Amino acid sequence: MRKSVRAASALLAGLLAGGLALLHAGPAYAADPTTMTSGFYTDPDNSALRWTVANPGDGRAAAIRTSIADTPAARWFGNWSGDIAAAAGSYAGRADSADKLPVLVAYNIPDRDICAGHSGGGAGSRAAYESWIAAFATGIGSRPAVVILEPDALGHESCMTAGQIAERNAMLKTAIAQFNTKAPNTWVYLDAGNAGWIGASDMARQLAAAGIGGAHGFALNVSNYFTTDQSASYGNAVNSALRSYGYTKPFVIDTSRNGNGSNGEWCNPAGRRTGTPSRRGGGAEMLLWIKIPGESDGDCGVGAGSSAGQFLPEVAYKMIYGY
């Protein structure tokens, strides 16, 4: 009888452990890169810093340097990055040498920004993308890192055919698998849009179809303006919906430009403000600066006449103060 009780207890413990693991699914071997580093990495070649160095006499330079250029934020990688294995490896290596955690954005999916077009481009084919993302993961290797995977890739499904969606999901699954295999100390967050875009249950369905079960988590509010509270509520709603697939996931929030919240516009709206600098917690697993404040969303709004990614000092300066 005692043996049977012990066996039943062991079985119950195993089932409970399995259930807990199921609810917070992810690669079992993935290390926590935040425990391997002493804080977040500041890109030494970010667009705001380049502008301040080139314009030391400008009256806006000191504020932009202190409030934006010296703040840890992500670097974006795409078809402009050249040899992606070398580029990602060099960046992760410099961060590792400084004992800091780098945040890298993979932004090269074919038909990128297919709805809006301001940041159009990406790899020319599925084969080209899968080769590129494999090299990206190889470049990072065993160094600690965070990767934000393909902003807007799921949000733009409304502009795609069923065949395009299936192919994109296959590419995202391949990308997640490549990082799991080749970059075991990297946490990958698949982009999940923002609180004002796609309903939580629909986003959960899209995440599941794109392989979120194999990723560490999902990313919210990338390059957008919704408050941290709004984004956290949305993330929790997505997780509630993900439970029907057998798991939940941690999420991160881009807080770089959400200090004043959203006015309903996404493309260079006026009156926005910088938000909480990168940190652990705060209603999410991490709050991160993923988009550099002052970088244009495209030829629109207060960035009329600019191109996506172009640094606009006046926009950056006003964003520091919220006007």
From TrEMBL:
One of its GO terms (molecular function) is hydrolase activity. Residues 1-30 form the signal peptide. The active site is at 152 (proton donor). Its EC number is 3.2.1.-. It comes from Streptomyces katrae. This is Glucanase. It is an enzyme of class 3 (hydrolase). The keyword Disulfide bond applies. Belongs to the glycosyl hydrolase family 6.
